[in-house]
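2024-03-11 09:14:02 INFO worker-7 job=invfold-0412 stage=load source=structure_tokens
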């Protein structure tokens, strides 16, 4: 694998973006990156322009799906061999990326998920109970065990880049992983460590977290069976 792109969707991440990007550049200088500024109201765009970071400026906030799809369209047009979803908030650690790339090279899979739970067990917090539920539903509907379905650290090969660039129904969420598995995508997981976000607040409040779990489970169990 020769050319890998880190897609960094960013919405109001002025407090953590520069640290995230500089760490990525220092630890994995061979991996290109693009910041997708998702209509931020803060200085996210200014930080990119002042520091010379490659950036796509979206005029309004479209959400994570729009930001990620924009990055995948860019990766497809530029001919990248793989693209990795990489958070702007400092949770994802670039030290894990080469292990994920090596796994894709070694096993020739389509998707590599950076998982917190290959070698470690989940706790019994409300969030992890939701993760267990989604894992169980994915296994029920696909026959494939995914230990960390809500991980946002995912590496996609050239075939998957083209899929995401051309199919607006796909999103960077567990339901799309389940859908792609049913369509024949090969998925692997490697153990990674993740940090708490360095600054700002997660868009997932308690109510939004519950709604997220309900939507993901409903989509995997019912809605995606009606997709062509």
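2024-03-11 09:14:09 INFO worker-7 stage=emit residues=228
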């Amino acid at each position: 694998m020769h050319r890998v792109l880190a897609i960094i969707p960013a919405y109001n991440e002025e407090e953590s973006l520069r640290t995230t990007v500089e760490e990525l550049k220092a630890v994995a200088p061979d991996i290109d990156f693009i910041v997708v500024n998702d209509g931020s109201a803060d200085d996210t765009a200014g930080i990119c322009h002042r520091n010379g970071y490659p950036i796509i400026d979206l005029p309004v906030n479209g959400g994570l799906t729009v930001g990620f799809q924009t990055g995948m369209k860019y990766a497809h047009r530029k001919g990248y061999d793989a693209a990795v979803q990489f958070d702007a908030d400092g949770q994802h650690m670039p030290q894990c990326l080469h292990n994920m790339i090596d796994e894709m090279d070694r096993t020739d899979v389509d998707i590599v998920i950076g998982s917190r739970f290959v070698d470690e067990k989940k706790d019994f917090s409300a969030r992890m109970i939701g993760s267990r539920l989604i894992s169980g539903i994915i296994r029920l509907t696909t026959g494939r065990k995914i230990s960390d379905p809500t991980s946002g650290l995912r590496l996609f090969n050239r075939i998957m880049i083209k899929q995401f660039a051309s199919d607006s129904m796909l999103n960077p969420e567990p339901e799309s992983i389940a859908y792609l598995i049913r369509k024949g995508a090969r998925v692997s997981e490697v153990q990674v460590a993740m940090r708490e976000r360095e600054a700002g607040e997660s868009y997932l409040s308690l109510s939004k977290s519950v709604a997220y779990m309900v939507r993901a489970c409903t989509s995997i169990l019912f809605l995606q069976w009606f997709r062509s």
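2024-03-11 09:14:09 INFO worker-7 stage=report msg="Residues 151 and 201 are 18 Å apart (CA to CA)."
2024-03-11 09:14:10 INFO worker-7 job finished
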